[in-house]
Structure formats: structure tokens, C-alpha cells
Amino acid sequence: MKNKVLLIEDNQDIRENAAELPELYGFEVLVADCGEAGLYLTDLTRT
């Protein structure tokens, strides 16, 4: 199982670029465009 990183950024270009680096190091990157969406993702993926 991969380690997960949650990235919350409202700017789409920055969000896409910032997600690339952790992916290169083998992390699963969850991306959200606002805090509310980020909290929702954490609820969905919490183990």
C-alpha cells in the first residue's frame, strides 16, 4: 500500500504541478481544490 499525501490548492496549474513530485517518489496523491473537498477525501480514504 502506498503512503498518501493530501494536496489542497485552489489554482489548478499549481495543483497539477505540485502533485507530480510526490508521485515520482511513490506517494498516492489525493488532490482537492478547497478545504471542504479535502476533508471529504480524507473521510472517503480513511482506514
Describe this structure in words.
It is a single chain. This protein is α+β, with helices and mostly antiparallel strands and 47 residues long. The protein is 51% helix and 21% strand. The chain is built from two helices and two strands; from the N terminus they run βαβα. It has a two-stranded parallel sheet. The longest helix is centred in the middle third of the chain and has 13 residues, at 12-24. The radius of gyration is 11 Å and the shape is flat. This is Response regulatory domain-containing protein. InterPro entries: CheY-like_superfamily, Sig_transdc_resp-reg_receiver. Residues 4-47 form the Response regulatory domain.
- Strand order, sheet with most strands: 1-2
- Structural class computed from helices and strand pairing: alpha+beta
- Provide the residue-averaged pLDDT: 94
SSE order, as H and E?
EHEH
The share of residues in helices is 40-55%
Q: DSSP helix count? A: 2
Number of DSSP strands? 2
Biggest sheet layout = 2 strands, parallel
Assess the beta-strand content as a share of residues. Answer: 15-25%
Silhouette: flat
Low-confidence runs of at least 5 consecutive residues: none
Radius of gyration: 11 Å
CA(first)-CA(last) distance: 12 Å
Which properties best describe this structure?
flat; Sig_transdc_resp-reg_receiver; alpha+beta; two-stranded parallel sheet; 21% strand; 47 residues; 2 helices; Response regulatory domain-containing protein; CheY-like_superfamily
